[in-house]
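Bit of a strange request maybe. I'm writing a small parser for structure token strings and I need a real example to test against, not something I typed by hand. Could someone generate the tokens for this chain?
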Amino acid sequence: MKSSILRNRALKLAATMGAIVLGIVGVSISTEFNETVSASSSGPSPSFSGAPGEGTCIVCHGDFGLNSGSGNVIISGLPRNYVPGQQVEVTVTVNQSDAVVYGFQMTAVNGLEDGSGEFTLPSSDPAEMLIGNSSVEGHDRDYVSHNSNGITPEGFGTRSWTFTWTAPATRQGKIDFYAAGNAANSDSSPGGDNIYTTSSSIFSGTVISNFFDEGHSNIAVYRPSTGVVYALNSNGSQATSADIGQPGDRSVPGDYDGDGISDHAVWRPSNGTWYVRLSSGSVISAPFGMEGDVPVPADYDGDLKTDIAIWRPSTGYWFIYRSSDITLDIRRFGLSTDIVAPGDYDGDAKSDVAVFRPSTGVWYIWRTTDQGYSIFQFGIGEDKPVQADFDGDGRTDAAVYRPSTGTWWINGSSRGVFASQFGMSGDIPAPADYDGDGKSDIAVYRNGTWYILRSSDQTARISSFGSAGDIPIAAAFITQ
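Reply from user aminoacidic:
Good idea to test on real output. This should exercise your parser:
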């Protein structure tokens, strides 16, 4: 009897996640969308996760609307940010109180819509999941799914599957995870089942000025006259302020504790002290530097924590206090007339020491991946460096803003050189990922008004927030 029950459950999940009829190998089903899906006795056919260019299991399990049931599918275990090669334990859970058997499929997709990272299954006997591969509109993707052994509930109305996702060897910018789940009634047909979808994203530590943990940069300003930071959430319904500094301090925001949320921070030139208010609410202070230094905080050691650092123009020395091993890194790089422009130009999750030389328009970058140098001409004397990840590939792009024309010139690491006229003389450039698509948006601040060119849809957003004399927080990541 037990064997018959299990066999019936397997037959029910016949078409789970893509019209799969367990035990009827070789049969194909023509759907109402004129798609043909080969049957399989091992698990769901790939490319039904709901990712871009894909359908979902509802093409066959179509009695109810997508996500119309009383249950859901949940992705858990993903960090806010990732580093290359990081191994992440991911769990997909399908919930519905009256379901009898369950199934799922998940994939990870980068900004180019290609599959990203690798899936590894836990060792179990018998195996309860499988890994498949498919090409969707020319994009190669891997999928992790249930198999016929992994369909029975673990408790009342729920089933979870846990596996490992390994991040790609270099940063790829924002990575989206798509999952579809089937809560089935086990009547040996695709009818009467509920299909659910969900998605979740992780970033590569490039979302700056993120004070509300919303997965994108917030409009925020620092008021030098009072030392107060003001930040606005994405829909404008909530504003916060943080009294962290005093007149004369320099704004040095960053993620100093590695929790994925930006921390308010200032550097006081008069005594060389850093004051950081962590997102948890606690305040730390650390003497590091002296008057005349230029603060250059960034993640130089790849632990997703902002490192306290200064550049000394008088000598060209960089002093970096590494958060990963609490050691001091000292190196000489640049001339007193250079403008510092650190960023992760090679995609290894470590910020590279870099400068822009206005006298020649030449960039000098020391790459951490191979301890080599990149030297190239990009810009002219009046330009301001505005380095950021404008093409969403996880690597910092060399870029300049030309005040006389309000033109942005960007040397995209994957897109190539492109220009955009956005702004006017006197504006403060403030690029950041304001729309959460993994690409930095071109933006300027003008006496209390923000002008943002959204990379997701190429529309302009205009917002009033701040006063004349304020400094946009995003500008602290790119300029002196």
